[in-house]
Amino acid sequence: MSEQFEPILVGFTCNWCSYRAADLAGTARVKYPPNIRLVRLMCSGRLDPAFVIKAFAEGADGVLITGCHPGECHYLEQNYKALRRYLLLRRTLEQMGVEPERLKLVWASAAEGVKLAHEISTMVEEVRALGPLDWPRWWNENGFHAVVEEQAQEVTA
Amino acid sequence: MSTNGKPKFAMYWAASCGGCEIAVLNTGEKILDVDANFEVVFWPVAMDAKYKDVEAMPDGSILLTLFNGGIRNQENEEIAHLLRRKSQILVAFGSCACEGCIPGLANLSSTEQIFKAVYDSVTSENAQNYRPQFHTTMPEGDIHIPKFYPVLRTLDQVVDVDYYLPGCPPESHQIAAVIDLVIQVLNGQASLPLKGAVIGAGQSTVCDDCPRQRNVKTIKAFRRIHEVEELDPELCLLEQGIPCNGPATRNGCGALCPKAGAQCIGCYGPANGVVDYGARLISAFASVIDSNDPEEIEQILDQIPDPAGQFYRFNLAGSLLRAGKPAWKQ
């Protein structure tokens, strides 16, 4: 039996809601797959689209953005900004060949540990079905641009 | 090779359009200062020289090389390595060498798609459907042409680069200022900037140089210039719904396009501190959309039909992702 592909997900969580939802899931012993690496931000509005792009460029197979429900942002309306950035970023990434399913936005309040765990489990399965993204590593470990082995092909008519 | 004691100067074009060379000539009489202070040893567009002449020069014997163009094929790559070896100061000159520019947009397509567009479209007469072959065997022997790489790279993705001079093309007054600086350095009147510096450009954004009035931005629709009945000559273009790339773009041009009523397209590349040019623009554009309703937001975003082209027009090869999947997964 061949080994099952384990996708790597990066999850960006909001300090005021989804991070606490994940915390709650942990306290309540709600299980979700260990494929996701959570990063805590102060707000989903702090999410620079470059974070997402960097995650994909450095080996993530999927990125989950989470924030407070509409109307419940700790900073009034920054989660709406996150929503707009997400929608525009998804369109741009699709043109680059990143399937839209690899980027997801989920609202989760501090009480919704079970919901968040469920969303994570669902996304892990969705990305597993898509397979690895395998974006080329353009850098080497020193941070410098590695010389990429360029496979030039003969193109026939 | 003559030895008149003057420091040596070279300029090369890889995958580029030639606009950078024109920009250098546009410096006017400043070009005479180049001639007075330098010996031009290699400049394919301006003088006859062979690659083997450069190969014969001692390593490090060229003081200053301005390299424009991206690394599209094997020839570009070989000359980049050759000129790096022969030059003391290698400048990535112009947007193509710095960040890929328009040729870098081909990184969204596969080699086959590119060749189809070039050799098999309505503008090409190619009934036999010929494609260039890297190796061809003829009765007289094997013929090789440079290999075409699947992904265009910027100069610093191939060799070590000392300075970056951005712009498509760099503004002539900025080139003139850099020439002046180098001559001052030669005369001991100035010192070189730190390695890796961006020269001949500003340290801020195009918005900082733009005289248009800026308020709190709220946009209900993105529009192209010709779709606007009457453009307000004083007001920020982005506020009028024109997708202007000024917020993320390095200044140095003097905000020429917005001053003339056209949106900034981003030819001076990312401003200081911008990790990913497209990401910064996505952030800026999304922030000013005046809607919190997902459906309405999608409708507004439909008015940017080509987001990758809008946000990475000059910067795709230099961005974090560098190339679309069709280019690298062939």
CATH topology of the largest domain in chain B: Rossmann fold
**Architecture of chain A in CATH?**
3-Layer(aba) Sandwich
Query: So, the CATH homologous superfamily of chain A?
Result: Lumazine/riboflavin synthase
Radius of gyration of chain B: 22 Å
Number of domains of chain B: 3
Per CATH, the architecture of the largest domain in chain B is: 3-Layer(aba) Sandwich
Content of β-strand of chain A: 5-15%
Q: What is the count of distinct domains of chain A?
A: 1
Looking across the biggest beta sheet of chain B, what order are the strands in? 2-1-3-5-9
Tell me the total number of β-strands of chain B.
Answer: 9
The multimeric state of the shown protein is heterodimer
Number of strand segments of chain A: 4
Low-confidence stretches of chain A: 143-152
The computed structural class of chain A is alpha/beta
CATH secondary-structure class of chain A: Alpha Beta
- Using a beta-carbon cutoff below 8 angstroms, give the protein chain pair with the largest interface and the number of residues from each chain: A-B, 39 and 53 residues
User: N-to-C terminal Cα separation of chain B, in Å?
Assistant: 45 Å
Please state the average pLDDT score of chain B. Answer: 93
Query: Unreliable runs of chain B, pLDDT <50, ≥5 residues?
Result: none
| Total of DSSP H or I helical runs spanning 4+ residues of chain A | 4
Q: Would you write up a description of this structure?
A:
The complex is a heterodimer of chains A (157) and B (330). Chain A is globular, with a radius of gyration of 17 Å. By secondary structure, chain A is of the alpha/beta class. Helix content of chain A is 35%, strand content 15%. Chain A has one domain (9-130): Lumazine/riboflavin synthase (Rossmann fold). The longest helix of chain B has 15 residues, at 172-186. Chain B has a five-stranded parallel β-sheet with strand order 2-1-3-5-9. In chain B, strands 4-8 form a two-stranded antiparallel sheet. Chain B contains 14 helices and nine strands. In chain B, helix 2 packs parallel to helix 8. By secondary structure, chain B is of the alpha/beta class. Chain B is globular, with a radius of gyration of 22 Å. In chain B, a hairpin with a 2-residue loop joins strand 6 and strand 7 (141-144). Chains A and B meet through helix 2 and helix 3 of A and helix 7, strand 8, helix 11, helix 12 and helix 13 of B.
